[in-house]
Amino acid sequence: MKKFFCFIGLVCLTLPLGAQQVLSLDSCRALAIANNKELLISQEKINAAHYQRKAAFTNYLPDISATGGYMRSQKEISLLSDAQKGALSSVGTQVSGAMQSGIQGMLTQYPQLTQNPQFMALIQALGNIDIASPLNGLGNSLVDAFRTDTRNMYAGAITLTQPLYMGGKIRAYNKITRYAEELARQQHSTGMQDVILSTDQAYWQVVSLAGKKRLADSYLHLLQKLESDVDKMIAEGVATKADGLSVKVKVNEAEMTLTKVEDGLSLSKMLLCQLCGLDLTTPIALKDEQEKEWSTIATATNGIDISAVYATRPEIRSLELATNIYKQKVNVTRSEYLPSLALMGSYMATNPSVFNSFENKFKGMWNVGVVLQVPIWHWGEGSYKVKAAKSEARIAQYQLDDAKEKIELQVNQSVFKVNEAAKKLAMAEKNLEKADENLRYANLGFEEGVITASNVLEAHTAWLSAQSEKIDAQIDVKLTEIYLQKATGQLTIHN
After folding, report:
1. What per-residue confidence (pLDDT) applies to 117?
2. Which of 219, 306, 311 is nearest to 261 (CA)?
3. From 1.10.630.10, 3.40.630.30, 1.20.1600.10, 2.60.120.560, which CATH number describes the 2-35+167-338+376-487 domain?
4. Other CB atoms closer than 10 Å to residue 266's CB: what's the count?
5. Rounded distance, CA 423 to CA 167, Å?
6. Angle at the Cα of 83 (from 79 to 86), degrees rounded to 5?
């Protein structure tokens, strides 16, 4: 139904500006709701709160992150000292020298071996073999094998963190965001009711001034007729010039009153156009503008269930949600000083790798573990913060209780005003009947010459006042019904 009324309002916007638009109360409400900037803002707040609630739910899910890095170093890490590197590089020369020294010592100790031609041939063959070069090469190979080549280092890791227990913080945050989304909806409803109320006030103000404009036109017409009759009577000598001047003064006052009413009507229509999002100069006519009687909705003023009012008033629901949010904030504050437990797993790779000596290759490993954090001592900080959060929750509860008391008073006042407006309307209708009868007798008496012009003017003035009071009473009945609907939380676009 709401979308239907909004569609009607948007269709009205597409009508040519040169043609006068006829707007009903529902179409004015639909236009005002569709074009009100505060409502558009509150709708975006609902969207933001909705996505914040979805974001809060993701805290239950594991967090996966990837990290990578590169570092260039001036020097590489060395596993061998310079002396060890030199010893390994000359190991062949050292071994060859040791062998030659050993052979010479053996020949010196056992000179008879020099007489053995086979042994000397073996010694000669060993002397011809180059032992130093391959051993030196082997030593250099060992030195190269112990190089780490860590000047260019690469590292990367993928980490998974799954919260297991965070002191109740995640659950509290999810409740807070759920309450916050509902709070944004209730605030939107409150703003919508305020817009509807403002629109209805402007609508019925235009209707009231339109009725008073018709009344001013009718009153001026009556006075002009009376002025014409008095002028004829003055010409015939049955009335004085003083009577004519009195009537002319009243005619001038009636013209001035009509001008003021027309100006007020123009300004009221501009206000209504502004509320509906139309150009201020848009020519509009209201459906109830030409009516002389306006139907009213029978609003039950007896036995209003105040508990049902609390359930329908968005302000009460907003304060209840705010109270729940502050209660959850107590849990969030307390969770900061409770143990937290999380499951962690990761895969890490480096280059150079150290899993098979030092290799210029990407190699890695996975690991799984749990992380437990237990707060031990904070000098009572947690206790103080929890107490502060509890105080804020109690403040919200007190505000809720105070709002309920004020709303109960507002409902009772609205009921009283509805009943009072109905009584005033009944009295205004009776006064109008008497004023109509008085004006009829005054006109007849003036035509018969038994009543003076001043008495007729008094009858006209009384009739005008009675007509104006009836219009005001009718509009007051409409407005007090709207105020009662607002007080009971039933003022919606469906009304």
Report:
1. 72
2. 219
3. 1.20.1600.10
4. 12
5. 63
6. 100
Helix (H) or strand (E) holding 373: strand 363-373
> What six digits make up the tokens of 355?
């899993």
Q: Tell me the C-alpha to C-alpha distance, in Å, between residue 287 and each of 25, 249, 435, 478.
A: 8, 35, 29, 15
Count the neighbouring beta carbons within 10 Å of the beta carbon of residue 124: 9
d(CA 55, CA 60): 10
Exposure b/e, 451-483, CB count within 10 A at least 16 = b? bbbeebbebbebbbebbbbbbbbbbbbbbbbbb
Burial class (CB in 10 A: 0-12, 13-18, 19+), 183: buried
**Confidence category of residue 382, pLDDT binned at 50, 70, 90:** confident
- Indicate the pTM of the whole model: 0.77
Q: Report the distance separating Cα 282 and Cα 21, nearest Å.
A: 8
- pLDDT more than 90, % of the chain: 59
Query: What is the per-residue pLDDT for 494?
Result: 55
Per-domain boundaries in the chain? 2-35+167-338+376-487, 80-149
One-letter amino acid at 445 equals G
pLDDT digits (tens, 9 = 90+) for 387-417: 999 999 999 999 999 999 999 999 999 999 9
Q: Are 365 and 347 in contact (CB under 8 A)?
A: yes
Q: Is the peptide bond before 352 cis (omega within 30 degrees of 0)?
A: yes
d(CA 337, CA 381): 9
Banded model confidence at residue 7, pLDDT cuts 50, 70, 90: very low
